Amino acid sequence: MKKIINDPKNVVDEMVQGLVRSYPEYLERIPETGVVYRHDLKNIQGQVGIVSGGGSGHEPTHAGFVGDGMLSAAVCGEVFTSPTPDQIFEAIKKVDSGAGVFLVIKNYSGDVMNFEMAQDMAEMEDIKVKSIVVDDDIAVENSTYTQGRRGVAGTIFMHKVLGAAAAKGANLDELEQLAQKVLPNIKTIAVALSGATVPEVGKPGFTLGEDEIEYGVGIHGEPGYRREKLQPSKALVEELVGKLNQEFKFEKGDQVAVLVNGMGATPLMEQYIFMNDVLNKLADLGLEVKFTKVGSLMTSLEMAGISLTLFKVSDEIVENLNYATDTIAW
Amino acid sequence: MKKIINDPKNVVDEMVQGLVRSYPEYLERIPETGVVYRHDLKNIQGQVGIVSGGGSGHEPTHAGFVGDGMLSAAVCGEVFTSPTPDQIFEAIKKVDSGAGVFLVIKNYSGDVMNFEMAQDMAEMEDIKVKSIVVDDDIAVENSTYTQGRRGVAGTIFMHKVLGAAAAKGANLDELEQLAQKVLPNIKTIAVALSGATVPEVGKPGFTLGEDEIEYGVGIHGEPGYRREKLQPSKALVEELVGKLNQEFKFEKGDQVAVLVNGMGATPLMEQYIFMNDVLNKLADLGLEVKFTKVGSLMTSLEMAGISLTLFKVSDEIVENLNYATDTIAW
């Protein structure tokens, strides 16, 4: 294991320290927790707070999306491990200013359980809380840590859409309706070229041959659906867009937003080449691309690979995607 | 070689296509060249244009810094290969609106030669051009492709400072004075954990042992100054800040900007941990940190490692670093 760290036990604490010290104009930390919140919380008094979080190792998710027009706070668990209910509860209390708090949860059993417990704790203190569980990864049903489908990079679109709506003054019920409306329209699928190593474990979660790839791998190295020899970018796009289209059953003229997401070690050069092929393929399908984003946003430590998220959008949703946002990573 | 590409010969062309199609609100391309320029050039009529560029493989550098308050255009050469003089000349012509064009060149022999030829070509057409050659890498004197010191991640600080000054209305002479003033105050040093593979070459430029690192490696895999066993982050910081301090000879109270830059495959988690240790060390030295940035900004394809840039700053320079900027990657 070759990593730039000190003690593997302290990676998250030291990371959060480094993060908050690097960006004090964006983030503050609730001392001795993995909770980071907007430095300018006082400017959004009266708005619904948006909280997300989960295991660490997916940076810049989630903390990189805390800021104007997106998240109010993020809860950083240990690497690939759900944050505890009391940490999530601290985040909820911190960002509630009377209008309630909306939780964006990725669909992993630990996250769902702990966020729900935190929601219960908050409601006992009369804080109104609603939530959505994002399950955008179409690769497999059920997985190492998940009942149903996993929550992956499409969660960032959820952050963006809800963050914009909250900034525009949507109340808690309106945010819930919006989240439920867009949820089935966000779908993701990935391909991995190499695995990642959790610092405390010390060896890769999975390994692939010199010339081998795996379709459908999760962001914690959960198994995908097929291994084969490395293919050119265009062939990867055929496979992944094909799978997504089976789910969406797109019609000509459908509008989509596209996120090409690097898994950690994949150069931007490859992500742009892949996006170019994706846009060609979507044009072939007669889709209208209304929004595009490329970058390593929902990573899996140093995994190499790419995920592709398609989001079937209306003009109103595109407006939210383009809504002014000021965060470290959007 | 496991890369998400199609034909190794076409990686730059397909990358630039993907880039411009992903971000049409920022970038346009001069057809059949590697030149990308600001979509809103008409909004900066009368300002000095700022052009940078170089070999590809360092994304998001340079195209990711084209936009309001930074670069007017970027010239993307083949991977790790200088762009041709005629491409640079096209970029100069595109962004000149009468006030002249300032070139930011990284110190590699090919880049210096080709940018100077382009400058000559432009001057023959009565376009005023000035330039700066950035040589911030203190690791070694002379190198595979360089006389003197190499230009690396500190170049991004130069883009930012000059871009802000140009946006505020500085003329060509003022930009030249500013560039010459800040140049000796920007210094960088790196440590590599693994090498990178140029697509057309097909094998890594260098290899390191399972547990080995190399200090001072360049962004094209140029040799550094020492190999040893992997050290904890704190020890890497001791070494790199120590080397930088030998050059700067800091005094208590000196003000600095800090850039921790991932080389491509290094997770943000590690970059934040490293930054945390850097900030501790700079505090020990009595320095006042005025600006911080963390991210994979000047990469070397999928190289793993980090570079550390320190920039001795005045309040005026800090103002330029904080000046409003709208690009894909800053």
UniProtKB/TrEMBL annotation, chains A, B:
Q: Which GO terms describe its biological process?
A: glycerol catabolic process
Read off the Pfam families from this record. Dak1 (PF02733)
Q: Which UniProt keywords apply?
A: Kinase, Transferase
Give a Gene Ontology cellular component term annotated to this protein.
Answer: cytosol
Q: Main EC class of this protein?
A: transferase
Fetch the NCBIfam families from UniProt. dhaK1 (TIGR02363)
Instruction: Return the protein name.
Output: Dihydroxyacetone kinase subunit DhaK
Q: From which source organism is this entry?
A: Pediococcus pentosaceus
